[in-house]
Amino acid sequence: MVGRSRVIFILFAVVVVTLCQSSRQVSARLDGEVVVEIQNILDPSRADLQVQCLSGDDNLHNHIVEFGNTYNFTFENNVWDTTLFFCCFQWEKPDHVWLQGGPYNIYMAKRDQERCMHYCRWRVEEEDLYP
Ligand SMILES: *[C@@H]1O[C@H](CO)[C@@H](O)[C@H](O)[C@H]1NC(C)=O
């Protein structure tokens, strides 16, 4: 019984992941949509990165990004080119001290429409944030 429910759960998880991936790919092709990608390159601590991004309209809540992994979010620019997302980062160093960075302006329509267009990437380092 336990074995069967585990198999069903795994199948369910695969279906959900597949659905999420396909809907993400479809929506990423829509006109005007911007993908912001944030990668955790917290070397040498290789800590999990906690990311929270907000705009005037949206609170994307806290996300945990393992070392080397990325976190994406997508949105549509508003017609006035005033879209602004800012993000705060925190992580726990190996000595259990928490470090915080931000808020950083991660996406500003006027700055970024030409700089990175539909796909804006950031890499989060221990010392800094790199485009
Ligand atoms: C983030 O978006 C980019 C561009 O669409 C894609 O190449 C990458 O695989 C995405 N990463 C994740 C974790 O979804």
What tags apply to this protein structure?
131 residues; alpha+beta; Immunoglobulin-like; four-stranded mixed beta sheet; four-stranded antiparallel beta sheet; 2 helices; elongated; binds 2-acetamido-2-deoxy-beta-D-glucopyranose; signal; S-protein homolog; self-incompatibility
Describe the structure.
This is S-protein homolog. The model is unreliable at 8-30 (pLDDT under 50). The protein has one domain (27-130): Immunoglobulin-like (Sandwich). With 131 residues, it is an alpha+beta fold. The chain contains two helices and eight strands; from the N terminus they run αββββββαββ. The protein has helices spanning 2-28, 109-115; strands at residues 33-40, 49-55, 59-65, 70-76, 84-92, 98-108, 119-124, 129-130. It has a four-stranded mixed beta sheet with strand order 4-1-7-8, with no helix packed on it. A four-stranded antiparallel beta sheet has the order 3-2-5-6. The structure holds 2-acetamido-2-deoxy-beta-D-glucopyranose.
List the helices and strands and how they pair.
Blueprint lengths: L1 H27 L4 E8 L8 E7 L3 E7 L4 E7 L7 E9 L5 E11 H7 L3 E6 L4 E2 L1
Parallel strand pairs: 1-7
Antiparallel strand pairs: 1-4, 2-3, 2-5, 5-6, 7-8
The protein binds 2-acetamido-2-deoxy-beta-D-glucopyranose.
The site of 2-acetamido-2-deoxy-beta-D-glucopyranose has 6 residues, from strand 1 and strand 4.
